[in-house]
Every structure is written in C-alpha cells, then in structure tokens.
Specification:
By secondary structure, this protein is of the alpha/beta class. The protein folds into 2 domains: 88 residues, Elongation Factor Tu (Ef-tu), domain 3, CATH 2.40.30; 126 residues, Nucleotide-binding domain of ferredoxin-NADP reductase (FNR) module (Rossmann fold, 3-Layer(aba) Sandwich), CATH 3.40.50.80. It has 5 helices and 12 strands. The strands form 2 sheets. The protein has a 6-stranded antiparallel sheet with strand order 4-3-6-1-2-5, covered by helices on one side. A 6-stranded parallel sheet has the order 10-9-8-7-11-12, with helices on both faces. The longest helix is centred in the last third of the chain and has 13 residues. It is globular, with a radius of gyration of 18 Å. The protein starts with a strand and ends with a strand.
Length: 230
Amino acid sequence: MPDWHPATVSDTSPAADGLTDLVLDIQGTPLVGTHAHPGQYVRLRLTGQEEGIFAIASPPDPRGTRWEFLLKDGSPLPDALIRLRPGARVDVTPPEGKGFPLERARGHDLLLFATGSGISAIRSVIRSIHRERGAYGRVTLYFGARTPSAFAYSDELHEWEAGGVRVVRTVSQPGASGWQGLTGYVQAHLGEEPPRDVVAFLCGQTEMVQGVKATLQARGVPKSAIYLNY
C-alpha cells in the first residue's frame, strides 16, 4: 500500500492551453528530501477521486518544501485538483520511479525530448542541469506541442536558453494560427549531423517515445544511451 502524507495547495495557475501549474507545500511532512532524481513521479489523491500519477516538475532539493506539477485537464482528478484553492489538502506519496540518470549524462552531450505535459519531467532535468551546467556538454531540448498555445513554461524558455540549453520547438497541428516556426514531430528536427557521444532523455506520448528511439538508434545512438524516467 502507498504511504500517504498530507500536502497543502500553495498555488494553481494557467500554464498553457489545457495545462495548469500546481504547487504543493510539503513542509512538516516526511516527504521533504525524498525527491532524489529528476523525472520521478508521485501519486496524488483527493477524497472521492481515483488516485493519479504525476511527475514532479521542480528539481530535487534536499531541503525544498514545495513540489511543482503540471496538470493536463480533461480527466476527473486533474480537473478536481485545478479547482482547489490555496490551503486545500491533497494526499501525496513519496516519489517513485528511477527518474533520469543525470550522472550518466555528465561529460556528454545531452538530448532532451518532450511533448505536451511530458515537459514537466524534463523541466526538472533542466533545472537540475543549470545548477552545474559545466558538467555537461551541449544540451538540446526538442519540445513538441499540438498547437502554438500548448507549450507549457513558455515564459521560462529564455531562461533555459540563457542557461545553456538550446530549445527547438515544433508544432504538429499549426492550423491557421500563423505559427512561423518548425512543424511536425520532434524527431524530424535532429538535423543532418549524426549524434555522437550523446545521452538522450525522453518523456511524452508513447508514439513520440517510440519514434524518437527508432530515429536515434537508426543514427547510431545505442539503446543503452536512451532513457525514460520509469
């Protein structure tokens, strides 16, 4: 049985079309210091709702008392969480999953792939990398969304780039939005140069993960250098 602890809602705010930021305060609980690896996830539950699994979007912090999440609307639990006011209680488990092995990426170029709400786990990676940017080679984020207004953390992208992370955004369904950037799937924008001495972290829809893995392996990246967060 999961080990549940009470957390308190600090804030909710719109993140993008169909996405909402949720911040939980875990101060005074045994959860403080348990988030060890970016990409780990927890279970959240509310009375009368089925529990759900959500990646922690903030980086690990041994003394941190706030965990951030990205909620995708359209399902009962996320919709209920989005409606909560500051001070409301949410039950939370300790982090699960192995997360992303940052130690494997040290000294190598790092390719990050995320689509939709999968950017939450990758954001935790990026925030962690910024604390010790010199330990890694070139870092590139390939970030895909259905529409231009569906990119979460768009207000942070300039910070990520200023911190040494190249950001490549692509839209799969631009429609009549006037989007002038890249279109199509993330794996279509790897460029012509074969990836060498790289490690890749992936989080997003199954189709994206399978497509990226196949593309990377076809271009010589070994399977052992491609990681998911679970």
